[in-house]
Amino acid sequence: MLKIAFNDYYIHSLPEGHRFPMAKYYLLPQQLLLEGTVDENAFFSPGKIEKEAVLAIHDANYFNDLLELKLDRRAQRKTGFVHNDDLILREQIIMEGTRRCAEYAIEYGVSMNIAGGTHHSFTDRGEGFCLLNDQAIAARWLLDNNKASKILIIDLDVHQGNGTAEIFQNTPQVFTFSMHGENNYPLKKETSDLDVPLPDGIKDNEYIYLLEQSLDQILNIFTPDFLFFQSGIDILETDKLGRLGVSIKGCKRRDEIVLQLAKELDLPIVASMGGGYSEEIKYIIEAHANTFRTAQHIFF
């Protein structure tokens, strides 16, 4: 059974100015239900993550400042949000969603979070609409609880997973792979275990070639027993921030490659949705829905 993390806090706790672009958190589950890709039993509502799981990744002073709303205005601006109690609770719920997805992935092969992919969160700070790093927290939880020993994070959002790279820079059990727009945010890139910078306007064929080549390269030197997939759809040609030229068909092919790899190698995989900023929300919903449809088709 495909298990999907979703909580009303994903939507209703967002500051007013962010509710329209984040409407996908409401519309995507509705689309999946309407078309019959999943039924209501697929969804689970995560609670708040345990503090110990967060502190296994994030600096205690930073996390406490988040909880107590003590970050100054400059630090808040860097995250992209004005902070309030509901927003901080939302972040903790998203973190627990991805951690619980990791448990479900071990049981069912795959699990997915409607939100997450917060790869711009560093050990001691947040950036780019990311306060805490969900895949890093879940990966560390797996390692600490002996549920995985070698983890590959496949980050295919258009923006480099800079926070994830920093967090795991000295952790050989975690391989960080980021394929991202060379000229896109962040201006200063961190160093992942493998970075593949992409030129503006790259089309489907070259994108897919580089992805398959990169995965082959990684698997020749690293043998994971668990996968995380940051499946941002801001690589689309319709995305107002992405600057790449990948079609919806090409984005779906990307998902097929990653999810089929997990299935063929019998590797549990967790997907977090990441970014997507097309002007027309129909493109966002269709591309994200394709990731869920593909997982359902390949695994079940």
Automatic annotation (TrEMBL):
One record GO biological process: epigenetic regulation of gene expression
A GO molecular-function descriptor: hydrolase activity
Pfam family, one: Hist_deacetyl
Residues in Histone deacetylase domain copies: 23-286
Region forming the signal peptide: none
InterPro entries in alphabetical order: HDAC_classIV, HDACs, His_deacetylse_dom, His_deacetylse_dom_sf, Ureohydrolase_dom_sf
Protein keywords: Hydrolase
Gene3D superfamilies found in the cross-reference section: Histone deacetylase domain (3.40.800.20)
Family per similarity comment: Belongs to the histone deacetylase family.
Name of the protein in question: Histone deacetylase
Organism for this UniProt entry: Brumimicrobium glaciale
